[in-house]
User: Fold this.
Amino acid sequence: MTNPAYVLGHSAFELERLDRQERLIGPSTREYFQAAGIAPSMRVLDVGSGTGVVAFLAAELVGPSGEVVGTDLAPTAVATASKAAVARGLTQVAFHEGDPAEMDFERPFDAVVGRYVLWSQADPGAMLRKLAKHLRPGGVIVFHEMDWSFVRSVPAGPTYDRCCRWIIDTCERAGTNINMSDRLHRAFVDAGLPSPTMRMRAIIGDAVSAVEWLRGMAELATVLAPEMGERGVATAAEIGIDTSRIVWSRRSRPAEASLSVAPTLARGCGSRFSPAFRRFGHSLPVACRRRSQNKPLAAWSGRNSMIDLSGKTVLVTGGSRGIGEAIVRAVAAAGAKVLLHYGKSRGAAETIQSAIGHQCCQLIQADLSDIEAAIDLWRAATAAAPRIDVLVNNAGIFEVTPIDAASETWRQAWARVMQVNLYTPAELCRLAILHFRTHGGGKIINVASRAAQRGDAPDQWPYAASKAALVAVTKTIARGFAKDNILSFALAPGFTDTDMAHADLGEAGIKRILGEIPVGAMATPEECGALTAFLCSDQVRHMTGATFDINGASYVR
Assistant:
């Protein structure tokens, strides 16, 4: 299948326009790349580099220890980009002429990226399939594309709307996919990649605040003018009058209308887990983890519309049941990818993973009663996800230990409870802090208990002591590491309505407990999950060090 002619060409004016366009859409591209996990020391392939601005952006993210290889079919574009790389002193960036789908490279890439590339392909799926061969297992594909389905002005601005219509008609008559959102999902599936999860972003402004966009629109129409005339969309006279009017109106007239322009869609999926995207703006990123099996994974569409954890990775201990399960589901619903730790309940963990989607949830087993468990678990987690954004220490045990128990029994119970409830979580906190310091910060959420605040039953000293100590650890981390952008929170649930609670307490015990709770019901795991997802977000910086009670006013501090 032959690709349609590239309608924008590679004239000197077009290459200059691409540089100016970067001011408008560059920040969105950066967000998408960061959310997809492009990080220092990675090797990146940039498809359709043009003047090199996307490659330069990737170079900033991978740093001097990384590498970016840019490609373009146009010799003038490659020459321009190469010259710019030298001027910027970017020795880790190189550009090559050719089609990367047909080229051979000396070694695989950690990421394949592109902006406004798939829209001009006759078969985007075939191109993605060929590009995926350059990707290492577990690598990421990120494409930032355009969609003009919702371009309009309100109230209607005839000049602006007419110019947009000309651009759309010209591109459609040339055979390009200017509304790529209609084909983006299918392109990834056709390529044999996992089903991606789409996100949309749109630029919205008025004739004053969207000045740069208006100028960009006029310049785009200018570049397309020969194609407009050749394809019978508009005459040269019409184009000249209307594009100059747009430029004049942005300089001289007050705001009269709001402009909604070129929505952006992002797609994220993974071989075992993947970045998710939730943003709003003007282009269309696509991210997809390469998978080892040649069949698409089922997409998971459940999303929390109030909290956005797109691009974040959350490690949850004890995530296979109860509060831990609710936390896993809540943060995944908000767009995070989850590393779900479990101890013995592999079947329950796999059920959760299937419900959420394998591309969003990876399982890690570890026995937290083992003194080396924290180190082994953290090593496995960072192998699965080079960057972890949030650690949730949820796993815990309690043992009934009467004070008249044998001394050896007493000491062993204390040792077991303290190991799982305090020593292993504290070690994970230490490892997380060291990791966060090299990745710009992070968050720690320790699930403690109401018992940490008011004490517990006479035969549960170890449990109360371990949870109180965990709260103290949380506060100490908050005070000591806020300067490193490391935040720490504690949850203190009272009795929670889980299967384990019902099994342990029985009907009489449940009735007694409900009589102690003013709201008349136990807390639900979902309440704990929702609060945890909120604390994972970037909206609560000044709450660091706080302990959040979830007990229906059964204990009020």
In short: The two ends are 70 Å apart (CA to CA). Residues 407-437 form the longest helix (31 residues). The CA atoms of residues 237 and 546 lie 66 Å apart.
